[in-house]
Amino acid sequence: MGGCTSRIISTLFALVVVVAVLLAATYYFLMPRLDTMIEDAVRREFILPPSSTVDIERGSLFDTLEGQVRRFYVNSAEAKIDGVLVNDLRFVAKGIAFDLGKTILTGKADLKDVAFGELELKISEASIEERWAAELERKGLSKVEVTLQNNRVGISGLVDLKLAKLRVAAKGKLVVDGTDKIKFKPAELDLGGTNIEVGGIRAAVNSLTPVVDLGQFKMTILVDKLEAKDGYLLVSARSSDLNERMNESAEARSDEKARLAHEREVLEKQLADVKKQQEEADKAGQQQGQDKGQPGK
Questions:
Q1: Are 98 and 144 contained in the same domain?
Q2: CA distance linking residue 112 with residue 230, whole number of Å
Q3: Which tens digit of pLDDT belongs to each residue from 123-144?
């Protein structure tokens, strides 16, 4: 009986040792390979050059295998977002969820969700020109030029009228309309001194492809800074987690409640003033009637 128990204990001990060795091997050999794989996947996702910095802070082995990463940091002189060349990209993300299977198969960081992130980048005039040139050329506008200065965006180009080429231009600004897309909003249109519509140019500038779609970052985008100056569009954005969004919503409801209470207070005061004025007018009218009814008045 004692010998059987000893063999069971020995077997269990051997299994524990084997598991410990496997875990150690996994930690020292597999985890570094996973780290490198995830870093390379992030580089491919944003088409980063070798000089870029990608730091991954992972959790446990089980977290990583489930597609969870605590934090990663990206700093690169250039990258491609939504097919657009951007400069000075800085992206810090926390609570990242990704599809490990697809990441291994495709070699790209297939992000599913980001709990919180901060993002900075800038886009040059040349990148935006490249983004819009082919689209506007199909609408009849060639030699497209884009200028970014003093928070204004200028677009100009030539329209071929057969007998002459007419330069047309549009001015406006770049806006975020509640989505992850940064779009051009025209304010002025110069049709080369004419008052006629030229080749659908007005419709073309009103429906331009967004400068960039930030949805690739898989987070709720809140743009803190969107500034056009010195030939660049400067973008600073962040995401808010669920608690922050709930707090913002609660604050908005509280502000709305306070506003309605103030408006009600003002309205009640106005009604009281009107009532008082009416009473004073009625009293004055009664007094005048009494004075007229008295002899000698």
A1: no
A2: 35
A3: 999 999 999 998 888 888 889 9
Euclidean distance between CA atoms 182 and 146, whole angstroms? 15
Task: Select from 203, 220, 237 the last residue of a domain.
Answer: 220
Task: Assign 73 to helix, strand or coil.
Answer: strand
Residues with Cβ within 8 Å of residue 74, at least 6 apart in sequence: 42, 46, 48, 52, 53, 54, 89, 90, 91, 92
Question: Do 105 and 143 share a domain, yes or no?
Answer: no
226 token code pair: 């969107």
pLDDT digits (tens, 9 = 90+) for 203-228: 888 888 999 988 877 777 788 889 99
Could you tell me if 8 and 72 lie in one domain?
yes
Tell whether 35 and 136 lie within a shared domain. Answer: no
CB 114 within 8 A of CB 219: yes
> What tokens were used for 192?
């080369």
Note down the domain range covering 75. 2-123
* Structural domain includes residue 172: yes
Q: Which helix (H) or strand (E) holds 92?
A: strand 84-98
Kind and range of the H or E run holding 72: strand 68-81
Alpha helices in the chain (DSSP H): 2-25, 31-45, 61-65, 100-106, 125-138, 201-206, 242-293
Q: What is the DSSP string of 164-191?
A: -EEEEEEEEEEEE-SSSEEEEEEEEEE-
* This model's pTM is above 0.70: no
**Domain count of the fold of the chain:** 2
